[in-house]
Input
Amino acid sequence: MKAFRSFAILFAFFLSGLHSILALDPALQASQFRHSLWRIEDGDFNGSPGVLAQTLDGYLWIGTGTGLIRFDGVRFVSWVPPTGQRLLDPRVFSLLGARDGSLWIGTGFSISHWKNGRLTNYPQLSGRIESLVEGEDGTIWLARTHMSDKMGPVCQLKSEQLRCFANDQGIPFPNALQLANAGGSELWISGYSELCRWKPGSARIYFRNVSGRPEGYPLFKSITSAPDGSAWAAIDGPEKALQLQHFEHGNWKVENYPEIDIDNSDVTTLFVDRDNVLWIGTAHQGIFRVRGNLVDHFDRTDGLSSDVVQSFFQDKEGTVWVATSTGVDNFRDTLVATYSMREGLSADSAVAVLGAHDGTLWIINNYESLEYLRGNQVSALRSRHGLPGRHVSTLYEDHAGQLWMGIDNNLWVYQQGVFRVVRHADESPLGIIFSIAEDGLHNIWVRAGPNLDRIQDFEVKEEYTSPQVPTSYILAATQDGSAVLGLVDGDLILYKNGITKTIPSREIGNTRQIRELLVDPDGSIWGTNVDELIRWKDGVRANLGTRNGLPCDGVFALVKDKLGSIWLYTRCGLISIDKSQLNRWRDNPTSVVKTTVFDIFDGVQPGLTALKPQATRTPDGRLWFVNGRFLQMIDPSHVRRNEIPPPVHIEEVVADRENYLTLENLHLPALTRDLRIDYTALSFVEPKKVRFRYQLVGHDSGWQDAGVRRQAFYMNLSPGNYRFRVIACNNDGLWNDAGATLAFSVAPAWYQTKLFLALSVSSVLLLAWLFYQLRMRKMATAMSARFDERLAERTWLARELHDTLLQTIQGSKMVADDALDESADAARMRYAMERVSGWLGQAVQEGRTALRSLRASTIETNDLASGLRDAAKNCPIHGYMKVEFSVTGASREMHPIVRDEVYRIGYEAIRNAGMHSGGSRLLVELTYGSDLLLRVRDNGKGIDTAIVEAGKKGHFGLQGMRERAARIGAKLNLVTSPTLGTEITLIVPGRCVFRRGNSSLQSALAQIRALFAADHRKSSLD
Output
């Protein structure tokens, strides 16, 4: 904000050098300015406007009877002071925007000062503040009435120090109504009936007791100072009529304006704008405007919001504002001025226009009236005033200044107030005149009726008749004596010395009618059709259309200015193409040209007329156009640009429907969803052409083009710090690149804080670490399982070898050892060798069986009892041991893996009993009940207790049996005694061994499959 205030101060100094530019054109009437109004009944504001002022930040302030209103050109906002501050009186009678950027507010009770967001009241100063001015040194002067104190009617505020002046300091009256700067340190001060020029210590009184009027008689009405140092006053003249006095060179001079026929009592205010044009506000007749010796009038019938004028004000861009009893009006300069009935035309039906060499502008109005504009005066020629006919069809001025025109069916020449008719030799009329042109040999060519005539010395010398003359309405002539016709099919035809030459368009489908023709001294021919600007040179045609940068199609008229630039009157406005751009396009017909467009906001009201010419240039360089209704004018040499970049402000922030009026250190709450930022740019010349761009740094990647929209919207902004920037351009495209800036922040929710983020990151890292550890542990478990699986396979193989092959080999060794003890007994030796041979064969068979068991079940059938019975027969049992085998209960379907384990345990128990027990009896019992019971009992010598507990070194029989029982969830009991023998009991739970059609069995089997997956990877699990 401080940076912007510094910019504003520099901006004010810059403005001081532009006042001569930023003003209204004094050559125009008030009705020709751009005019806008805002009325109370339209709901734009409350209260009757009384005074206006502009502060350095660009805002316009309007004082009403109910308060203060701020205006940006689009929106009226009732001014509300900060909480705890208020005006001493809501009635505002005077306003002043000071050079330091502050606003002084004169109310019905006292004065207040608004600066940097702080309101300062001066309650010690009573009365109604009628007028405020700022001296050259920044001193604030005020005039007041209805005082309750006796300090004097004129007061001074300097450095917040108050001082008032009364009669003893030269103030000649008790109440002061108006103040105006009189130059230097002097002031113009008015009372109810007199005026004085005053400075501390001296005063000179004017208009007291004029014509013997009694003291206190209402004589003086209003005073205003002018930029040139002069002053104007309104006083009572004879019979109370208004008398305007102009103070210049130290004297007052009466200025008489008969057009201002009002009483002095009707004058409410005087104002002189920057061009020293006097504006007079009245109580019943609106506005009178005095510019030199000319007076124009503007009232409610012309569009003024009310005929009761309260005050005037001119802003920094030159716009003049008017406060009336029911609204606010403004008058803005326009680049294109309009002439209508209000400016003196007889009708709003202008259809053709021609600029003459003497500066006269000729206008065909309503097809019946020939009117002319000289200076600011419009006159007319009609049939009752000497016009030889009723309908004028076209106009042309030759090299001698003679005016040629088509009237009814005849061709006429007008010179020095005399009309002369041109006819055929037989006195027959030429017909309706469509177009007239003069060539370089001073022949006059006329497109009349169906014919083309060449006229010299007022006689028809040559005539081309149909079908020599195709359908055409536009005619031009060249320096070499040729006539050129633009045809309705887009072609050109040249006529010279009885010879015709056609220049076709040479474009397939381009048959649009030629509307305008213009011939350059170098022989180039310019023309238009409905879509394009056309140039012919040496028989070659080039078209300039929208593809070459023309803003639109719909070309109505063509004219060149003094500098050789072409101006086109089109449906989208008035288009200017600089001569340099035309030359560039001429050298490269495919290039794109730069154009300048003047649109409706510049005063252009384009339209097409049936008659020609529709556009012309007067000797002073001004260009004129008609649109079928009005006459319009632009002066290319005085196209004034608005060189003031508009001040830009951010006015309001609305977040989730909550308004934030204080924009400094703005912190928005967490989870702000909808954000709206209101901004504005203060240019009152044409607010509708002010364009904006904005960017939210920290969110937008670049500038956003908002057009004329004055709001920016954002949704769901993330927490953080942001900087909103907005820039704007004025009506002429001049950008204020400094713009305005708003820094704000959006608070984070608890889960959007840095602490929460850190905790979240830490949690994620911790989870990742735990997952990693779990994965490593899982991998380690998997590797351990593989090792366990490999160890289990080796253990299983060791058991198989021990229980089968090694046992048989060991038995063979025992037989061989026994035979060796009696080696001399041949029969015994033979018997032993036979047994060894048989056992070795059995060992081979057992080895093969062990290998097969790696891939399949040990027994091929499900009959465990049969398998154990065979095992008892095949085991190396001493011949004297009796084997008993019993089965209790019906055989049941068993899981093959569990069945194999039971079989191996039983096989090992039977083999051990047969080989090591030394008993005479072996009992094998198999019981099918709720559980499976296997009991192997002998009556031998038993097993040593140490072997039962730790096993025999190098032998793994008992250990293997215990391991197998554990793997299938069975219970293995071993009871041994040296006298009773050994009993091995195996109890296998039925849920593990028997197959059942229920889910519990399936679950148990699944567990068993998992247990034996390492031993039997490829076995079938049914």
About this structure: The longest strand covers residues 735-746. Residues 685 and 903 are 111 Å apart (CA to CA). The mean pLDDT is 86. The chain has five domains: 2-333, 341-638, 648-749, 753-854, 863-1022.
